[in-house]
Specification:
- This protein has 195 residues and is mainly β.
- It has helices at 63-68, 160-165, 183-194, and strands spanning 8-18, 21-28, 39-42, 45-53, 56-61, 79-84, 103-112, 117-122, 136-139, 142-147, 153-158, 176-181.
- The longest helix is centred in the last third of the chain and has 12 residues, at 183-194.
- The protein is globular.
């Protein structure tokens, strides 16, 4: 379980393909603190650390993960948002994030607004019932408050800190992103559908 508060960014140094799997070597400031078999969110995707070397770690994505995320587009030099799993003895600064991506979305609009930025994303309409005005969503693993929620789009406002310390500053119109919607909303929706 994660909070959507990005701890560090990492850079992909190598991509390996084995059968239908893709492995990624990632260099980051926290790689040397990781352990094999540890869960780590990479742009919001929970992946298991399966190898370590110096200041790099490796994770592997299977076919199912590749089909539901933007990991198939990852290449060397790409900047990745990283978050270790949350500690149960601390504050929950973002929202509950599982690292289980629901779908991908597309960055449609990037607009600078005198010191902050407004991003608009489109997403498959079948997920519209999982978003509410001023609710939370995870975009590439970053917990953000959504507004201007439509049937297949929403916007977020980005403060300078988030812009600088996550990979959101690299997004341009047309960029695919990983989206995970609020788990509490999913449970509420499921419960109402069963009644």
């Amino acid at each position: 379980m994660f909070t959507g508060i990005i701890e560090a960014t990492g850079t992909i140094t190598e991509v390996l393909e084995t059968g239908s799997n893709r492995s990624f070597w990632i260099r980051s400031s926290i790689s040397n603190e990781l352990k094999i078999d540890q869960s780590l969110a990479h742009d919001g995707v929970c992946l298991t650390v399966d190898a370590l070397k110096e200041d790099e770690h490796r994770v592997t994505a299977v076919k199912e993960t590749l089909s539901k995320t933007n990991l198939s587009t990852w290449a060397p030099s790409r900047l990745i948002n990283l978050e270790r799993s949350m500690l149960m003895n601390g504050r929950l600064d973002g929202h509950l994030v599982q690292g289980h991506v629901d779908t991908t979305g597309i960055c449609e609009i990037v607009k600078e607004e005198a010191g902050s930025w407004l991003y608009t994303f489109s997403f498959p309409q079948e997920f519209a019932n999982l978003l509410v005005e001023k609710g939370s969503a995870s975009i590439n693993g970053t917990s953000l408050t959504v507004f201007n929620v439509q049937q297949n789009s929403f916007s977020v406002a980005i403060i300078p800190y988030t812009y600088q310390y996550t990979n959101i500053h690299q997004l341009q119109p047309g960029s695919p992103v990983n989206l995970e919607f609020d788990i509490i909303g999913k449970y509420v929706l499921r419960n109402t559908q069963l009644q």
